[in-house]
Amino acid sequence: MVVAAGHGGRRRRAWRWAMRAAASAVVWTAVVQLASITGLWRPRVLADCGGGGGAATGLAALAGEDRVAARLSPPALVPRRIYKSNGYLLVTCNGGLNQMRAGICDMVTIARYLNLTLVVPELDKRSFWADSSEFGDIFDVSHFINSLRDELMIVKELPMKLKLKTKRRLYSMPPVSWSNETYYLKRVLRLARKHKVIHFNKTDARLANNGLPVKLQRLRCRVNFEALRFTPQIEALGRKLISTLQKSGQFVVLHLRYEMDMLSFSGCTHGCSDEETEELTRMRYAYPWWKEKEIDSEVKRFQGLCPLTPEEITLVLKALGFKKDTLIYIASGEIYGGERRLAALKAAYPRLVRKEKLLSPEELQPFQNHSTQMAALDYMVSIASDVFIPSYDGNMARVVEGHRRYTGYRKTILLDRVKLVELLDSFQGGAMSWNEFSAAVKKAHQHRMGQPTERKVIPGRPKEEDYFYANPQECLGSREGLRDIL
Fold it and tell me: Could you tell me which pathway this protein works in (predicted)?
């Protein structure tokens, strides 16, 4: 009996020890997980014991492991904002990548202001490029939703009941362009409450550039610069492009906007043959939604409304002082006229590259026939370049300009096309020497290098004033700080 009692006591003590060990393990696991979420946990790396510089080596290794851990660990979720939704907002973005990007930023801001639930945007598939890419083919959907959860609810699709209802009847409208927050509060909110689901069938330029509350302007920036992250596949290939270029030293990105659709719809045919001019005109007439048919190319050119030709941009780069060994990355679609139109630029700058030259066909294959995904790669390289030069102030040029301002006023040369057309014609006509031409080009652009500047406001003429996404000054510091910089 004594022996049996002894065995029983040992079993009870062993059981109690096992339970305490298990409880300790659970508590310790919870503490570690909580600490890792709050940023208190840091992996420790022993200093190198092999000689001099051990402490520095240990710190470097620690910093390196922290950076790796930060990339691999899922970010802590921001607290969810709880609010009563006034309805759902469906949006169909129109245009190319950067036109849609800016539109998405506006739609998030409008949904937040009106306390609506935003459905992940639908992208344009009916444009000239007929790109079938979905939002999730370009942007990281989970990051988009989670990074903004403290501002608004974003869902991947409508609840089934509303989905069935909208199949029968959907209230769809294009909001008035360049509207301020009052328009959405007084006109759109009432419609959203009435119909439960409202659809915006156009998203470009639906918010004013100026006059909005600062908190709304800063939300536009937060969406643009933080929430709209490209997919891991695009990010990885974009980083590879950037790394390859940076290994060769400094590099310039030239956004050469000289594609067929650009020339056709703008009517800009300077430097084209008669056959090319006819081809571009036929294309313009083939698209009924493009209202402007009869266009005087030379008049538009003198107004600065045409992109510079590859031959013209060659002269401008040389006049600005870019040497022959400058590494230039061409960010664009297919150049109209192909290699023939790039001949002068290649002769002047032999280190001319494109993504198709730096990446293998196998690496680019998943992105082929998806112009928006290819443009995303160019966008990443444009942001990272030492100098960015757009030949035209389209959507990509303006959005990249604003992003480069946001990342520290990186050098962006904004070409004054009105002045350049005058100078180019004078030089090519023999009225100016090369030295005079070069000096005049440099003088015209000494204050057009992406320096801090106040956004131009033209009341009643929003199309002519500075675009918010090209210079989001409300997100770049206080007005007093901006004035100090200026």
Answer: Glycan metabolism
Q: Taking a C-beta distance cutoff of 8 angstroms, is the pair 342, 254 a contact?
A: no
Q: Judge if 434 and 453 occupy the same domain.
A: yes
Whether 38 is in a domain gets the answer no
Average pLDDT per run of 10 along the chain, which is 486 residues long? 48 58 49 37 30 38 47 72 96 94 98 98 78 94 97 97 92 97 97 97 96 97 98 97 96 95 92 94 88 92 95 98 98 91 96 96 93 95 98 94 96 97 97 98 96 94 95 79 44
In which domain, by residue range, is 299 found? 232-475
CA–CA separation, 211 and 152 (whole Å): 23
Element (H, E) at 216: helix 214-222
Q: What are the beta bridge partners of residue 412?
A: 388
222 and 245 part of one domain: no
Report how far residue 406's alpha carbon sits from residue 475's, in angstroms, rounded to the nearest whole number: 8
In a domain, 52, yes or no: no
Given a contact cutoff of 8 angstroms between Cβ atoms, the answer to whether 343 and 304 are in contact is no
User: At 423, is the secondary structure helix, strand, or coil?
Assistant: helix
Can you tell me the distance from the alpha carbon of 486 to that of 312, in angstroms, rounded to the nearest whole number? 32
Find where tokens 């979720």 sit.
77
- Of 201, 226, 251, the residue at which a domain comes to its end is 226
Q: Write the burial class of residue 157 (CB in 10 Å: 0-12 exposed, 13-18 middle, 19+ buried).
A: exposed
Q: Which residue has the tokens 């393990």?
A: 25
Domain end point (choices 178, 203, 226)? 226
In this structure, the answer to whether residues 202 and 320 fall within a common structural domain is no
Strand, coil or helix: 172: strand
Report if residue 484 sits inside a domain. no
